[in-house]
């Protein structure tokens, strides 16, 4: 069965969307290993943080009108058909008007040796037929109202200052400037058949800026495309839904911060989980959970270098800071939330925030996440150094000591409880620690204690978390609620066959809306359905042998996603089909990878000790 991601044609007017905000699902994403840009259908870059994913935004129209943006569009009404190049994160848009056709190619450039030491956003216009006039609009953002942009004229051209960021526009001679102010410029470009133009933003922070030539930048579009395709060609997956798997892998690669090996949970902040105030978060950090799941997805696809980098990053910062829920992309502690009240928010939904208040929580899930990644890594023939082995052994002891305590759970709730999924994660951690010790990767002297605690955890879950009345494992003992994340217990190897099948049935009945699932009981009125949960359900059903049911659910899930370039956000409104939450969302994309691999019979197990 072939499942493709079709190119999508859109009829557009110069006015843009009626309320000034494009739907979240309409954004394509570009990246260079350090920052990520979001592009609207009308050729506008509405989100770009320079130089890093977690820097303040240079273009922020995603969250504020008028905001900062970088737009290239033709004069008058037009049709735009967008699609990524095959196996690449270079985006092409075919633009058609009554006067002609042109192709716009967008790339956050890199080199074959890796990312550049500056941000280089290249935009190439090629005339295909007729004659067309394009308008270039470039407005600097205020970094959420914290700086006042200004222009400095030099003998080498105009330099843009956005706080500590230094930026410059490099362009071909056929761009004619029509307006210039401290925070904005406008220009025109006319292209005919076989005419080319290039406009590129080069930027850096708190350091001198090298200005490459137009020719160098233009050539690097193809170099970047080649680098993406070479990376994708090394992915090992030939099962069903191949195009969706490869596109999700490419999206996950955008979230890998190459400077450290950290993996961001998403590329944005403050995109709402509901279209009213309250549930807006900053996801531009590295959660232990997300980093581990993404690393596991990369392992399934054979991207070992990324897994090694992620594992090394995890171990290093665990050793320095201890088992935190999340870290900054450079390893720093994440600050509590700062709110920017003067920024209106996406579609007027506040708050706009940086930082994350969950940074001080404890989640038992981090134990299972870390050990799953380490166990899978060594099971593929890779090796641990002594420092890492010692740190993991100490972490297993910590898990054995503390599993009886309450925690904030996988969903980072403000009320600590004995969450069932947290206990399963502790079981998973000690199970993997025992397996690694049996294979000689960890010292064996502490393994008997880990094994005894693992059995105690399983017995506790069976006696305290199972409800005969609900015929399901509950959210936590004493509640009557269900939790969709318990589907993860199946790939984790927590094999309670009849009870798990009954739990999955109860979850789908209570938390389901078509192919989508809400996170836990009561969320139907609070937020959208959490897209990764559907993929976890598909994976669980497939691993339990319900292949036909799992395949039908996954096919319906993919068919109900918005038609776009393949970028997936955090949540969806099942009634309207609109995306909600931050984007691109790592958990959503890795869910697609794991679900498809499970359907292909590619079960990801660290060891088989039977």
Major sheet: size, sense and barrel closure?
A: 16 strands, antiparallel
Note the overall shape.
globular
The value of Rg in angstroms is: 24 Å
State the end-to-end distance: 35 Å
Helical content stands at 25-40%
How many individual domains? Answer: 2
Task: Give the strand tally.
Answer: 31
Strand content: 15-25%
Task: Provide the residue-averaged pLDDT.
Answer: 92
Q: List segments where confidence is low: pLDDT < 50 over at least 5 consecutive residues.
A: 606-610
- Number of alpha- plus pi-helical segments: 13
For this structure, the CATH topology of the largest domain is Glycosyltransferase
Structural class: alpha+beta
* Architecture per CATH nomenclature, i.e. the level-2 architecture of the largest domain: Alpha/alpha barrel
Name of the CATH first level of the largest domain: Mainly Alpha
Domain GH15-like: 239-541
InterPro entries: 6-hairpin_glycosidase_sf, 6hp_glycosidase-like_sf, GH15-like, Trehalase-like_N
Organism: Asaia siamensis
Pfam families: Glyco_hydro_15 (PF00723), TREH_N (PF19291)
Task: Explain this structure.
With 610 residues, the chain is α+β, with helices and mostly antiparallel strands. The protein is built from 13 helices and 31 strands. The strands form 8 sheets. The protein has a 16-stranded antiparallel β-sheet that branches. A 3-stranded antiparallel β-sheet has the order 29-30-31. A two-stranded antiparallel sheet has the order 10-11. It starts with 7 loop residues before the first strand and ends in an 11-residue tail after the last helix. The relative contact order is 0.11. Residues 606-610 have low confidence and may be disordered.
